[in-house]
Each structure stands twice: as structure tokens, then as C-alpha cells.
Design goal:
Layout lengths: L1 H36 L9 H24 L14 H4 L5 H9 L3 H46 L2
Helix pairs in contact: 1-2, 1-5, 2-5
Amino acid sequence: MNHFSDNISSADTKATFLIGILSALLVTFYTNDARKTLSCPRTDWGPVQWVTLCSLACLAAGILLGIYVVRPRLLKNRGNGLISWPHVSGFKTCTDYVSQLGNSSRSEILGELAGSNYDLSKICAAKYYWLSWSFHVGGTGLIATLLAQIISP
């Protein structure tokens, strides 16, 4: 289970780093260039304004996707269990938990462990899926920001 927890932690760390980079880029670009570029009436917009808007939208979306990676995910509640904290916390008292643990066979405990591993692997897969999207959308925002800087008069 530690392997899954380490990967989940790693995804959260990467997402937090990405959120920081994209946030700094968004604030810097908006305060230095984008606000002025987008201040003209929309009827007068040309390629620079549309690329600028696209870059701001992609940077913001990359940040939101990164936040989605970091958000807490609870394991599916299958009632009381012996391994993962959402299930163990379902017992009314510690004594009830210890009693259930003592009355469980090795195969029942291994089954609980396998179920917990499965739950953690699903959480890990979801985090890396959304982290990938955050990276790609944020990267698109970075490229659009650079393009806006290049084509800006």
C-alpha cells in the first residue's frame, strides 16, 4: 500500500508545483500585457487579442485541473473494514475494531488488503489522468502566452 500512497503523494506534489508555476505565469502575463491587450472593444479584436484570451483561459484551466488533482478523494465505503481508514473509522469503538480483526481469518484480511490496494490504485490512476490534462492544457497556455508575446505589436 505504501507504493500507492507514495504515487498519490507524488501526483499531489507535481500538481501543486504546476499550480504554482501556472499561477505565477497567469498573474504576470495578465498584469503586464493581457489586461492592456484585451481592453479594446471586442469588435476591434484581432489575432493578438484572441491568442491572449486563449492563453489566459488555458492557464486558468490548467490551474483548475491541477486543483482537481489535489482535491481529497474518499475510498468507496463498503461498510466496516479492517485495512483502510474510511472503513476502520466505521467501527463505533476501538474495541469493536480489534475484536473484528481478531475474529477475521488470514484470507479475509488479505481480501481487505486487496480491496484497499484496488481503491488506492483507482485514486492514483485518476490523479495522474487529471495531472496529465493539467500539464497539457497549462502547456498550451504557456505556448499561447509566448505566441501572444511574439505577435504583439
